[in-house]
Write a structure and sequence with these properties.
about 425 residues; alpha+beta; Substrate Binding Domain Of Dnak, Chain:A, Domain 2; 5-stranded antiparallel sheet; 9 helices; about 60% helix; membrane; Proline-serine-threonine phosphatase-interacting protein 1; cell adhesion; cytoplasm; immunity
């Protein structure tokens, strides 16, 4: 990036200040160029910088109230929000610093403009004085010329009248006409002298006016050269400041982009799940409880895992059984909730569990029919087998043991010994 430093503008400003101290001996410029320069200066200053009144109101602004991440935002996204907030505050502070720098540039340009304005006033006053003197002498010279021409015409008329009278007139009339012609000639001579003197004075003032005008134009040209050079350098510096500010803003926003690169959506979701999860399984459904079954078995038993797997399949496999047993087993078809290790995490609906089947002392039973197991938790039996009943289930399925093997069999297939 090309940069024009402050040295060129500073040198010109210093030279301009030194010339301003020299007084009236310094060259000045033309009035039209001065007026044009003032208008250009004012337009440039209005475009270049903000006003001091507006700069006085600039204050660092905290974005914590306007840009805030959600209180429960995931950690990496929260860090990105915090980084964005911080970098935007840094950008605002850098913009305020840029505004202050532009204000200093404005102050220097205003001082330069005021110095040139004072210098132009001095030379404009000199030009006004010389111009007024020149106009006054010109008017006086024109009046002297008019008087001189009139006197010359009067002298010519008197001379012609004297010639006519001297040829045919009397002696007295001739003398009178001769005296009048002499007086008119003397008046014409005096008018000629005054007219010539006025022209000489006018020429002297005109030469002075011309020299002063030439000197003033040269000075105005030099002033305009300095003004254009300083304003060009000021614009260059202004563009450099803005471009550097853009680079600085991009560097600050790059910090936000780096933070965003480290933001992982999957990690944030996993973190949120670990922090806010209430369990791994949904609450268990409310089981159906038959009123009459509850009357049959009112005694409460310790909660346990009720056999439910393959319940419908077992009923379809029963060839024999009492109607009461079948109705009881059908009413218990609904699954009972299974306790899990996350029972304290998920909030479940408090439901009184159905009372468990009564636990009876182990007794020996004989199998009346053959039964082939249809699930892994069932037991194969043959007619005549002696079985030890561990638990008589209300659903019609009994837990039995034979030769160290335990499983479910239909209770209607057994008879007590």
């Amino acid at each position: 990036m090309r940069r024009c430093g402050h040295q060129g503008a500073g040198a010109l400003l210093g030279r301009e200040a030194a010339r301003g101290a020299e007084g009236s001996g310094e060259p000045a410029g033309r009035r039209a160029a001065a007026g044009c320069g003032q208008q250009l200066d004012l337009a440039l200053l209005q475009h270049l910088c903000v006003t001091p009144a507006s700069l006085a109101t600039l204050r660092p602004v905290s974005l914590s109230a306007s840009i805030t991440a959600a209180p429960q935002a995931p950690r990496s996204l929260r860090a990105s929000f915090d980084s964005l907030k911080q970098q935007m505050e840094n950008v605002g502070s850098s913009h305020i610093q840029l505004a202050l720098a532009l204000r200093e540039e404005l102050r220097s340009l205003e001082e330069f403009r005021e110095r040139q304005k004072e210098q132009r006033k001095k030379y404009e006053a000199v030009m006004d004085r010389v111009q007024k003197s020149k106009l006054s002498l010109y008017k006086k010279a024109m009046e002297s010329k008019k008087t001189y021409e009139q006197k010359c015409r009067d002298a010519d008329d008197a001379e012609q009248a004297f010639e006519r009278i001297s040829a045919n007139g009397q002696q007295k009339q001739v003398e009178k006409s001769q005296n009048k012609a002499k007086q008119c000639k003397d008046s014409a001579t005096e008018a000629e002298r005054v007219y010539r003197q006025s022209v000489e004075q006018l020429e002297k003032v005109r030469g002075e006016w011309e020299q002063e005008h030439r000197t003033t134009c040269e000075a105005f040209q030099l002033q305009e050269f300095d003004r254009l050079t300083i304003l060009r350098n000021a614009l260059w510096v202004h563009c450099n400041q803005l471009s550097m500010q853009c680079v600085k803003d991009d560097e600050l926003y790059e910090e936000v982009r780096v933070t965003l690169e480290g933001c992982s959506v999957d990690t944030d979701i996993d973190s949120f799940i670990q922090a806010k999860s209430t369990g791994t399984e949904p609450p268990a459904p409310v089981p159906y409880q038959n009123y009459y079954d509850r009357e049959v078995a009112p005694a409460s038993s310790s909660p346990g895992v009720q056999p439910s797997c393959g319940m419908i399949k077992r009923f379809s496999g029963l060839l024999h059984g009492s109607p009461k047993t079948a109705s009881v087993s059908a009413s218990a078809e609904t699954l009972t909730p299974t306790p899990n290790r996350n029972e304290g995490v998920y909030a479940t609906i408090a439901v009184q569990e159905a009372p468990g089947p009564p636990t009876l002392p182990t007794q020996d039973y004989r199998a009346l029919y053959d039964y082939t197991a249809q699930n892994s938790d069932e037991l194969d039996i043959s007619a005549g087998d002696i079985l030890e009943v561990i638990l008589e289930g209300e659903d019609g399925w009994w837990t039995v043991e034979r030769n160290g093997q335990r499983g479910f069999v239909p209770g209607s297939y057994l008879e007590k010994l």
